[in-house]
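User: Sequence in, structure out. Go.
Assistant: Echoing your sequence, followed by the structure tokens.
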Amino acid sequence: MSTPGTGPPLTPSEERAWAIVAHIGTLVAAWLAMGFLCPLAIWLIFRNRSEFVRRHALESLNFQISLLIYTAVAIALVLVTFGLGVLIVIPLIIIGGIAALVVIILATLAAASGQEYRYPLTIRLVR
């Protein structure tokens, strides 16, 4: 029985496919604030089989964790200001959501073409 994350190396086309899923898959779970689950699963499964997939999944994972942190800070701001922070937070959430979608698409395109991608404003907690 093999342990998770071990197996034969991935082919270049498999590497690109799993790197793409690490980025675009976040959109599926993001509706439940669980966008980090897809890149986390891919990172855990493929980190020892492909350095390319490991880097893309890790970058996507750190970006999703950063988004959760920024959301928690926004919620805290609303609570601390007794709701007045909503005037600032709502426009930031709209702009941030559009920006997040754009960079996720850019990361997906980079993965599809075999290139590296670094998300902006990302706290790199997982290494």
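User: And one key feature?
Assistant: The chain has one domain: 12-112.
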